[in-house]
Design a protein that fits this description.
The structure is a single chain. The chain has 71 residues and is mostly helical. It has helices at 9-21, 29-40, 52-55.
Length: 71
Protein backbone atom coordinates (compact mmCIF):
# COMPACT_ATOMS: atom_id res chain seq x y z
CA UNK A 1 0.00 0.00 0.00
CA UNK A 2 1.36 3.36 -1.02
CA UNK A 3 1.14 6.23 1.44
CA UNK A 4 -0.44 9.53 0.50
CA UNK A 5 1.87 12.51 -0.08
CA UNK A 6 0.29 14.63 2.65
CA UNK A 7 3.71 15.54 4.11
CA UNK A 8 4.99 16.77 0.75
CA UNK A 9 5.10 20.60 0.65
CA UNK A 10 4.12 20.63 -3.05
CA UNK A 11 1.03 18.54 -2.27
CA UNK A 12 0.05 20.83 0.61
CA UNK A 13 0.55 23.91 -1.57
CA UNK A 14 -1.67 22.39 -4.26
CA UNK A 15 -4.35 21.54 -1.69
CA UNK A 16 -4.32 25.05 -0.22
CA UNK A 17 -4.46 26.59 -3.71
CA UNK A 18 -7.46 24.39 -4.53
CA UNK A 19 -9.18 25.39 -1.26
CA UNK A 20 -8.69 29.07 -2.09
CA UNK A 21 -10.00 28.58 -5.64
CA UNK A 22 -13.22 26.95 -4.39
CA UNK A 23 -13.49 28.93 -1.14
CA UNK A 24 -16.91 30.37 -2.06
CA UNK A 25 -18.31 26.82 -1.98
CA UNK A 26 -16.88 26.00 1.47
CA UNK A 27 -14.93 22.86 0.58
CA UNK A 28 -13.18 20.88 3.26
CA UNK A 29 -9.66 19.48 3.45
CA UNK A 30 -10.79 16.00 2.34
CA UNK A 31 -12.48 17.41 -0.79
CA UNK A 32 -9.29 19.26 -1.71
CA UNK A 33 -7.07 16.24 -1.08
CA UNK A 34 -9.23 14.03 -3.31
CA UNK A 35 -9.30 16.63 -6.09
CA UNK A 36 -5.53 17.11 -6.03
CA UNK A 37 -4.81 13.38 -5.72
CA UNK A 38 -7.13 12.59 -8.62
CA UNK A 39 -4.91 14.70 -10.86
CA UNK A 40 -1.66 13.15 -9.67
CA UNK A 41 -3.08 9.61 -9.94
CA UNK A 42 -5.17 9.74 -13.14
CA UNK A 43 -6.08 6.02 -13.11
CA UNK A 44 -7.84 6.39 -9.76
CA UNK A 45 -11.55 7.21 -9.56
CA UNK A 46 -13.30 8.73 -6.56
CA UNK A 47 -16.19 7.04 -4.77
CA UNK A 48 -18.39 9.64 -3.11
CA UNK A 49 -21.98 10.64 -2.53
CA UNK A 50 -20.92 14.31 -2.37
CA UNK A 51 -22.83 16.02 -5.19
CA UNK A 52 -20.19 18.74 -5.57
CA UNK A 53 -17.74 16.23 -7.06
CA UNK A 54 -20.16 15.94 -9.98
CA UNK A 55 -21.34 19.53 -10.20
CA UNK A 56 -18.64 21.84 -8.83
CA UNK A 57 -15.27 20.39 -7.87
CA UNK A 58 -12.64 19.93 -10.57
CA UNK A 59 -9.05 18.80 -10.64
CA UNK A 60 -6.48 21.59 -10.32
CA UNK A 61 -6.07 21.47 -14.13
CA UNK A 62 -9.81 22.12 -14.54
CA UNK A 63 -10.77 18.64 -15.73
CA UNK A 64 -13.63 16.70 -14.17
CA UNK A 65 -12.79 14.38 -11.30
CA UNK A 66 -13.41 10.80 -12.46
CA UNK A 67 -16.03 9.10 -10.32
CA UNK A 68 -16.66 5.42 -9.71
CA UNK A 69 -20.43 5.90 -9.88
CA UNK A 70 -22.24 8.76 -11.58
CA UNK A 71 -25.41 9.53 -9.68
Amino acid sequence: IESLPTDDPDFRDAVFAWLVKYGDHEPDWADACLAVLSESEPRVRVWTYDREFRTTWRRPDGKAIPLVVKV
